[in-house]
From TrEMBL:
Assigned GO CC terms: cytoplasm
Signal peptide range in chain numbering: none
Keyword Isomerase: no
InterPro entries reported in the protein's UniProt record: Acyl-CoA_dehydrogenase, AcylCo_DH-like_C, AcylCo_DH/oxidase_C
SUPFAM superfamilies, per the entry: Acyl-CoA dehydrogenase C-terminal domain-like
Protein keywords: FAD, Flavoprotein, Oxidoreductase
Organism in which the protein naturally occurs: Mycobacterium adipatum
Name of this protein: Acyl-CoA dehydrogenase
């Protein structure tokens, strides 16, 4: 696992350095990075390499640390898996997934750079299919990552159990938690380096007690979020994404990570000052990704309400509080 982490870090760092000064809104798909990852066998770890969530988590977090502009989670964990569930053949290269309802799919990641596998969650069930040359209304999230909207109809799509759609969302929620932790690590590393190097009144910023308290608070929020995400990774590894324990653990992680986004990103920008808000600075890429990803595949508030309902409905709410769901 250490070797995999080092490999991903080296690839991600070289990619970021190559893109330095070239970032723009919306971001452009990094074809060179994708080629390198594909040659290294990292684009389809789960669907083709017989790896598991632990290995994929290393890849997702490592690439997120370096603001990689490629849809790895969408290709491997989401669209590739969903296509296999529906018995669809998908092309080589990047894939993405569109989750729609009522004939419209919104916020589709990388919609013009990847083949789109649609999951239409309609009133009469889940319909899945590979879209060919759909008309996409292009946009982007706060970090500049391409997001798009498209219309569809369900003719010719494959019907699946709605539980597959639930698992798809759970997979996406877990992936975003892992990626946010990677973005958090980048933000903390940059903030520690900046406060150590920046001199104010004859002393490094990191020597001031208020700055030390802020850094400690930032690190504490990150480690709390990391612990919840590690729990979710262990649950999906041991039980699979379709299990109730995985559902519970991913819900907890989505709440913990989502609630950490505001304090972590706020402290990072406060300690960087004006420099941290420019698109050219790596901090901007990290914090804007964290803020954007926290609302994808369900909001923090939505998952918090879900936890609350479980506690109210449980025979013993203590089971919910100590991470011991009954099923």
């Amino acid at each position: 696992m250490d070797e995999l982490k080092q490999l991903v870090d080296d690839i991600g760092r070289r990619s970021y350095d190559a893109q330095f000064g070239k970032r723009r809104l919306p971001e452009v798909f990094d074809a060179d990075l994708w080629h390198t990852l594909d040659e290294s066998g990292l684009t389809r770890l789960i669907t083709e390499q017989d790896a598991g969530p632990r290995e994929l988590a290393v890849v997702l977090a490592g690439l997120a640390r370096h603001a990689a502009a490629v849809p790895i989670a969408e290709t491997d964990l989401l669209a590739g898996w969903l296509a296999a569930e529906a018995g669809l053949e998908v092309p080589a290269g990047p894939l993405t997934v569109g989750i729609g309802a009522g004939g419209v799919a919104r916020d589709v990641p990388w919609p013009t750079d990847a083949a789109i596998v649609l999951a239409a969650r309609e009133a009469d069930g889940l319909y899945v299919g590979l879209l060919h040359d759909p008309e996409v209304t292009a946009g982007h999230n706060l970090a500049g990552e391409p997001r798009g909207a498209l219309e569809y109809d369900t003719d010719g799509l494959t019907g699946l159990d709605p539980a597959v759609g639930d698992e798809l969302v759970r997979r996406g929620a877990w992936a975003r938690c892992v990626q946010i932790i990677g973005a958090f690590d980048a933000a903390l590393e940059l903030t520690v380096a900046h406060t150590s190097e920046r001199v104010q009144f004859g002393r490094a910023l990191s020597k001031f007690q208020a700055v030390q308290h802020s850094l400690a608070a930032m690190a504490g929020e990150i480690e709390q979020a990391r612990a919840a995400t590690d729990l979710a990774t262990a649950a999906v590894t041991d039980y699979g994404f379709g299990h109730a324990r995985a559902d519970y653990a991913v819900t907890v992680a989505k709440v913990a990570v989502g609630r950490a986004v505001t304090p972590v990103t706020t402290i990072a920008h406060q300690l960087h000052g004006a420099i941290g808000v420019t698109i050219e600075h790596q901090l901007w890429s990290a914090t804007m990704r964290a803020r954007s990803w926290s609302d994808e595949f369900g909001s923090t508030a939505g998952y918090a309400r879900r936890l609350g309902r479980w506690a109210l409905q449980a025979e013993d709410p203590w089971d919910v509080l100590i991470s011991s769901p009954t099923s």
